[in-house]
Amino acid sequence: MKTRLLIVLGLTMLLAFGITIVASGVGGAAFTTYNASIDGASKDVCKNSAINCNIYGAKEYVWLNGGPDANHLKPDGWYFFAVLEPGGQPNPNDDSPKNLSDDYDVYTNRVFRTEGGEVVEYNGTHWLDSGIGKNKKAPDDKPPYIRLFPYADTSNPGGVYIMAICSLENGYPVAPRDCKYDAFKVKAGKLDYQFMLEGMKFHDLYADGINDEDDPGLEGWEITIKGTGPDGKPIDTSVFTDADGTWSWLSPVYTFIGNATPGQVELEVCEVVKDGWYQSYPDPACHTLTFTPSGFDYFGGLDFGNYKKVSVEACKIDQYRFPVVGWPVYLTIESEKQEPVQYTGADGCYVWEDLKPGIVYDVHEGTLPGWFPLGPEDYVFEMAVSGESYSHTFQNAYAEGCTPGFWQGGNDFGTAGGKWLWNEDNDPDWTASGSQGSNPYTWTTEFNNYFTSWSSLDGLTMMDLVGTGGGSDDARKAARSLVAAYLNASWGMGFPYSTDKLSSKWSEAVASGNFLELHNELDAANNAYWRDEPPAHCPISASGY
Asked: In degrees, to the nearest 5, what angle opens at C-alpha 158 toward C-alphas 156 and 161?
């Protein structure tokens, strides 16, 4: 089962707003803070709120903490940290273009362990301090505070940095989704206000609204940002996703003089959906943000998911791979048959379109008299993936029958035909050649003495019937076709009816009086033919010539 883990980023959000980001390896919260026991608690250190500090006077004043008791890091285990430049997909591994920490050390020098969500072990060269005591000249090398410094300067004009905390549960290097992020700002002088938005545009392969590990990013999608800034003026701008589907936007810097304070920010972040795509996340279609700026505010995880519809095709061919028109086929969803039944077209296929991915579809073929399947009558596809097309071809063989004329002794091969196969007197090889010994001697046996009797057939033998042509009497037509069908079934060909079934069908026709329907059904089977060379002929040979 796929799962979206939503993690809260930054102490700022705990007080002012909720930030979510997709991650598979890290839960809970982590945030940057200052350490008063080492650096003091003045405005030169933390430039906005001592409770909600995310603007610092210098890079050295920024420390990592494992999180408050109510929302600490989880699961317990080994992690590493890195400081990154904002913008684009955050990649915390060493040698990544935006990694500012690896200018000074490798990730192994930034590895720490947590228990109960708190840092309990760190053995690298960064400062480690308990946060206990005042005006200390040096750290006491006790957890839980780890200083992020040293790291390189950001090129961001607002002095914005991103702290990444990444789980090593699955080893190194890590995927960006195995990390969580918090933004902070380093700025000297007067306090001003700014906020940053980030997210990802992902191809939701299974249309489940979850940014799974195998869902790729989508480049070149427009993200719109509209609303009201902290100065009361409108915001109406847009950005485009980059090569890995990520996007970010850093607001202008807002400065207030005198007694003026920032007002409430209200934003709606939406995507411009491209033709042929459908949105799966979020629901409703846009992210809405309402907050009062605290200095520097960061909103991550503003993701959008989209998918394309899929199609499923069922095709039908005969044993010679010719398309079969008008064959009934069904679409089933999670093994439940969908109505109505559809029929194959001139190309032997039917296509169901505009289907949603993330569903297991299968196709099922119906049955028609005179045909038998050469494979399973149901085919289950894998779970449908966005934008894909699925197709399966069913193959059936039509019945191999011989006509009443053949059994009368017609000249399919310029010979005596099937007349020689009627009984062991005319054909000494009757039993050895594959016939059923329990069959009547059709040369002399009366039809009504072997099948359910019908008055218009009194006194007629089997041979009489195949020679009559049926005339205008529907019962004679049906009986003539029945005799040929019975012999076809007796001979052990690929005929769709057993001898018992044929006897039963005749009894049903006698009871209902519907002889013409039986004649038409059996005539089609008896006239089945081969499509090879020479042209149409009965598929078995008459013995005795």
From this structure: 60
User: Looking at the DSSP assignment, which residues form a beta bridge with residue 55?
Assistant: 185
C-beta of residue 465 within 8 angstroms of C-beta of residue 422: no
Cβ proximity of 515 and 391 under 8 Å = no
What is the residue whose two structure tokens read 């909103």? 299
- Quote the CA–CA distance of 409 and 424 in Å, as a whole number: 16
Strands 63-65 and 29-33 come out as: antiparallel
**Considering only CA atoms, which of 148, 302, 291, 139 is closest in space to residue 229?**
291
- Region of 198 (left: φ > 0; alpha: ψ -120 to 50; beta: rest) is beta
User: Domain 310-398: which CATH class?
Assistant: mainly beta
Answer for the pair 61, 34: CB distance below 8 angstroms, yes or no: yes
d(CA 418, CA 405): 9
Structure tokens at 456: 């218009």
Per-residue DSSP letter, 59: G
Which amino acid, one-letter code, is at 228? T
Q: What one-character DSSP code corresponds to residue 74?
A: B
3-state SS assignment for residue 315? strand
Q: Running DSSP on this structure, what letter comes out for residue 217?
A: B
pLDDT tens-place values along the chain, 545 residues long: 232 222 222 323 322 322 333 334 566 666 789 999 988 888 889 988 877 788 999 898 999 986 444 456 678 899 999 999 987 778 999 999 999 999 999 999 999 999 888 899 999 999 999 999 888 878 999 999 999 999 999 998 889 999 999 999 989 999 887 888 889 999 866 667 899 999 999 999 999 999 988 999 999 999 999 999 999 999 999 999 999 899 999 999 898 877 778 999 999 999 999 999 999 999 999 999 999 887 888 898 899 999 999 999 999 998 778 899 999 999 999 778 899 999 999 999 999 999 999 999 999 999 886 677 888 999 999 999 999 999 999 998 766 677 887 777 654 444 445 555 555 555 555 554 445 454 555 656 789 998 999 999 999 988 788 776 667 899 999 999 999 888 877 765 667 678 889 999 999 999 999 999 999 988 877 876 544 433 344 544 443 32
Nearest to 358 by CA among 323, 337, 384: 384
CB 460 within 8 A of CB 447: yes
Q: Cα(465)–Cα(456) distance, rounded to whole angstroms? A: 11
d(CA 329, CA 317): 13
Architecture of domain 199-305: Sandwich (2.60)
Residue partners of 307: CB distance under 8 A and separation at least 6: 203, 204, 205, 206, 207, 277, 278, 280, 356, 357, 358, 386, 387
**Three-class SS state of 320:** coil
For residue 313, the surrounding DSSP H or E stretch is strand 310-317
Range(s) within the chain of domains with CATH label 2.60.40.10: 310-398
- CB within 8 Å of 122: residues ≥ 6 apart: 111, 112, 113, 128, 143, 146
pTM above 0.85, yes or no: no
- 543 phi and psi, to 5 degrees? -80, 165
